[in-house]
Write a structure and sequence with these properties.
The protein has about 450 residues and is of the alpha/beta class. About 40% of the residues lie in helices and about 20% in strands. The strands form four sheets. A seven-stranded parallel sheet has the order 10-9-11-8-7-12-13, with helices on both faces.
Length: about 450
């Protein structure tokens, strides 16, 4: 089957399930998610075997340690996928929810009700846990989903989808509502992106190159974020212990994800105190610091930074999503310069300030134009599960439909519902008997 035919067959099968999905009870959806969780636990050895195939091939291809970490599964990550399924099952079902209702002077009752988006194409890289997150959210929100994972995780994704479909069969959930692109042929993705009328929206989740390629080639709507250049600003009124812990966590805890910080912005008044301390801890973690002139001169011969790689920053470093143990450092004179820096170099994803000054914190929240803005907390919390949303399809930096982590409610859309009792616009109805136009019956006869 050629790419066009294959893409259409997947989309048509998914599309056929949309009416059935709308009539599914919440109980059936929850039972399917919990059955999937049960099967993941029972089949974890098979999952790890398939994941090992992907890892071995990735190592042969010379993939980076950061990418290998993203695609690796272990018992802990399987446990996390199981928990995601349980969490999503425990959430309220948004489908059919009446989110507002009002009555007009003419007696019309007008409201909005949440309905599914329809058929969702999600294109993602490296992380097989996205298969479970995306499928679970789409299933609970009564959307059909077409899953296109990266070629580097095809074996892992295939076994996970097989397990989901097995659960569907056992619970009478339409298994064609979860479709898997079981090929590494990139032409199939391009064909899927052209299927207006069959696929309602595409959500790319991965690196900037992937997202731009999807956005540029799609004929269907795309919800996206191009990259996660997250910034952390350490104010001159910051608590030093909080600042050190947040700066360390936001870079080191898992550097290969989009909500890890890439730029560390520090107020000049506390730079001499803060930067050597964080350089010491970054050095122990293997973080390379790419520094502006002030921070470079401060750290290059500082005893606390002797085990840390300190290099001069280039202009392009501040735009870069490293997804690795690398951070760019900038020293600023005040909060306004910090906010201007974030506006210029950031990607409107997640940004944070560490300060004990309430007014500065609120100014930062109001003026930093990002999907998630923090005071005194790590940007690593920008995640659907961490926000109590069960899981996420991705993190949108768009300003249309959804912004930030996309979970159940973001996979639905309001439609207007109107209840009437014969109301007419301007009371214009059919003419009364004496006003009815005469019909020329002869002209109409044959």
């Amino acid at each position: 089957m050629d790419p066009r035919q294959y893409a259409e067959s997947l989309a048509r099968k998914a599309k056929k399930t949309t009416k059935q999905l709308m009539s599914l009870t919440t109980d059936i959806k929850n039972k399917t998610l919990l059955k999937t969780a049960e099967l993941l636990d029972k089949k974890r050895s098979i999952i790890l075997e398939e994941n090992k195939k992907d890892l071995e091939l990735a190592e042969k291809k010379g993939y980076s340690k950061a990418l290998l970490d993203r695609l690796a599964l272990n018992d802990k990550r399987i446990d996390q996928m199981i928990q995601v399924l349980k969490d999503v099952a425990s959430l309220s079902d948004p489908v059919g929810e009446i989110i507002s209702m009002w009555t007009r002077p003419n007696g019309l009752r007008i409201g909005q009700m949440r309905v599914p988006l329809g058929v969702i194409l999600i294109i993602y890289e490296a992380r097989p846990n996205v298969t479970i997150e995306a499928a679970s959210l789409c299933m609970k929100s009564s959307n059909a989903v077409i899953l296109k994972g990266g070629s580097e995780t095809i074996n892992s994704n295939r076994i996970l989808v097989d397990i989901i479909k097995e659960a569907c069969r056992e619970t009478c959930f339409p298994e064609d509502a979860v479709m898997f692109v079981d090929t590494t042929d990139r032409a199939v993705v391009n064909e899927l992106l052209k299927l207006e009328g069959l696929i309602d929206v595409a959500i790319p989740r991965g690196g900037e190159n992937l997202i731009r390629a999807v956005a540029e080639n799609a004929r269907i709507p795309v919800i996206k974020h191009y990259k996660g250049v997250c910034n952390l600003y350490i104010d001159d009124e910051a608590d030093m212990e909080k600042a050190l812990n947040i700066a360390y966590n936001a870079k080191v805890q898992r550097p290969s994800v989009c909500n890890a910080i890439e730029n560390l912005v520090v107020h000049r008044k506390i730079a001499d105190k803060f930067l050597p301390e964080i350089a010491y801890y970054y050095g122990k973690a293997g973080v390379e610091m790419r520094c502006d002139e002030y921070s470079y001169n401060l750290l290059i011969n500082h005893p606390k930074a002797k085990d840390t790689e300190i290099v001069p920053a280039k202009e392009e470093d501040y735009y870069e999503e490293f997804l690795d143990l690398i951070i760019a450092v900038k020293v600023v004179d005040d909060i306004d310069e910090a906010i201007d820096f974030i506006e210029k170099y950031g990607s409107h994803h997640s940004d944070a300030i560490v300060t004990e000054n309430y007014t500065k914190g609120m100014k930062f929240i109001q003026q930093v134009d990002s999907a998630a803005v923090y005071i005194n907390a790590s940007t690593r919390f920008t995640d659907g599960n961490e926000f109590g949303m069960g899981a996420e399809m991705g993190i949108s930096t768009d300003k249309i439909h959804a912004r930030g982590p996309m979970a159940l409610k973001e996979l639905t859309i309001p439609k207007f519902i109107i209840f009437g009792d014969g109301q007419l616009r301007e009371n214009v109805g059919i003419p009364k008997d004496e006003e009815k136009p005469k019909i020329d019956t002869e002209a109409c006869s044959l």
